[in-house]
Amino acid sequence: MTAATSGASLGQLEGNEHTRVAVYPATDLAWVEAHLPQLQAQLRDHGAILLRGLPVDLDLFNRVTETIGGALLTYTERSTPRSAVAGNIYTSTEYPPAESIPMHNENSYSASWPARLFFLCDTAAETGGATPIADSRALYQLLPDDLRERFAGGVTYTRAFREGLGLTWQEAFQTEDRAVVEDYCARNGQTFEWTEDGLRTRHLRPSFVEEPHTGDTVWFNQANLFHVSSLGEEVSEALLELYPEADLPRNAYFADGSPIPVADLERIREVYDEVSYAFPWQAGDIMVINNMLMAHGREPFTGKRRILVAMT
């Protein structure tokens, strides 16, 4: 642990040579307000802060979130199951405890995304359950040149919504009105097709972008998460036996629609493993990340775990 470069008298940096989080001994909302310039600078320049020492308090979490990030956003164009807790505070993705959630930048598959993510540890897992983070600049820099070139045109995301397999279109778009979905797709560069089972969508997004404050290029996509291979060989093979490729809940392709080699995705996952950093949660912890500078995921866990999420 070394002194933080921003607000050195207040916080300490934890992490590895690629990814670091500045840990601050917060006491209450007044402390956050008094040290807001240092916290904001750390988020802008380095990407992650951890406020440690606060009580588990939903109202306090909401007020800390608004103080640092402004008004909370609703979770739109959903790709994973979550539950609303209060207002625009949600549970983290509700996947089985034994599963990992791959590293990703929130909503990087969408035309718009949150600038800041806020995580509150309500209940720490008995074992595991960390929320690892990974510096998106380091990931871009460490990926092989030829792989970056193959991804230069962007990532094409495909989704098929149906009852009983992944999210329905009503859950994903938070509406029962097909016209609302069609308008959303039209405004956000998505093609759509209504089917007997539900809905198919398709859209192209960048693979990497320039982060506006630092000017650095960041790896910013969810190809590794959307691609069917992220489900593991056994599950992906079973799905492909049951459904045509166009009806998979999620998948990812190169910009021209050609398949992404699994070897490329494995290399991306390997580099994520190389650069990521995880710490054990403590009840009351609030981690804030710059969504463009830091990707995040979830490790498997045992026991009860409850992490709440807000976006601004």
Automatic annotation (TrEMBL):
GO terms for molecular function: dioxygenase activity. Residues 32-311 form the TauD/TfdA-like domain. InterPro entries: AlphaKG_dependent_hydroxylases, TauD-like_sf, TauD/TfdA-like. It comes from the Bacteria. Its cofactor is Fe(2+). It holds the Pfam family TauD. Keywords: Antibiotic biosynthesis, Dioxygenase, Iron, Oxidoreductase. GO terms for biological process: antibiotic biosynthetic process. This is TauD/TfdA family dioxygenase. The lineage of its organism: Bacteria, Bacillati, Actinomycetota, Actinomycetes, Pseudonocardiales.
